[in-house]
């Protein structure tokens, strides 16, 4: 009975007639294939898309049922493409193929992925989740690409062996009895509907969590992260404050707001709420996005951060407008507050500010040039997408003059400015005084391969 079903499933997934297409293999090649060690066979099958794994049942009688014990089921765009548009033109046909695979599968399902472009929420997904929840799933990916959010069924929260979780466009509402995923090491949420309290509770109840990625258009008033083993964090969401508690291993943080929000949202007593982030941020590598810098500058820049960033070694800032005084002051504040900073990468914005505003920035740089500030640990600086504004060049001049240990300054103009200003930018920079005798100016043309 199983042999007939297996052949039928193969034929439908293959999109051809199984009985007419197969050819019997004779000789030593058949013996080699038939007698491969089971662990080798499993490794081969795990490298194949599901359809190709099913096709191996025709290699020999000993291979007929190997694929049904495959510990991973991956239904992704490759699965969709292999089936072909002619065969798979409706959601119903997709589900039929998935049902057939699940029907014949026999054994643990350690990895489950359902991520097909255009996939929408449907009740059948819950049935698949129920099956994998009963088969020891450890890596779970569900990405809904179109339509409404998919509410995770109760069976999902019984997947207590999870080590990797990746969700897109889902609703995460655990039952009151849910106590977290004690083995989870990697968590990725993209547009997942979840309250700030539930998210904080989830993170704190995953003691082995090492990597966390969160992107959402939802607004979180206060985001609290308690994760003693967390080393990597990526957040691109709308929040007023973020607080880190007991994150001693956190080394790499990339943070930004999803969309710009009215600056008044961030102000408290004349200072941006975003400044509170640095109260508890013991990181070595920090990447701050454009919208976050804007919010950090809302309400004015304080003289200093709540605490110095003693651990910070690498700082990346995106889309900085060197014609805006608050953004320029924010950049300098972060660099000045990081005594052990070794590398800075800044991507400039192409927005042009009024002359009256840039005059204020130039005056600001002149004041800084006369100060006794010095960045003694700074080794590398990258200035990307610059347009040749005088305010940009004055910043480069300041860095060169105040960095006695600098080894390299990389200059990359915006691709649209190379022809008009590329050479002028380079000539201007190489004339600046350098505090470090070993500082090398490296010009990179964005239009060259």
Automatic annotation (TrEMBL):
This is F-box domain-containing protein. It holds the Pfam family LRR_At5g56370. Gene3D superfamilies: 1.20.1280.50, Ribonuclease Inhibitor (3.80.10.10). Residues 30-83 form the F-box domain. It comes from the Eukaryota. It comes from Davidia involucrata (Dove tree). InterPro entries: F-box-like_dom_sf, F-box_dom, FBD, LRR_dom_sf, LRR_FXL15/At3g58940/PEG3-like.
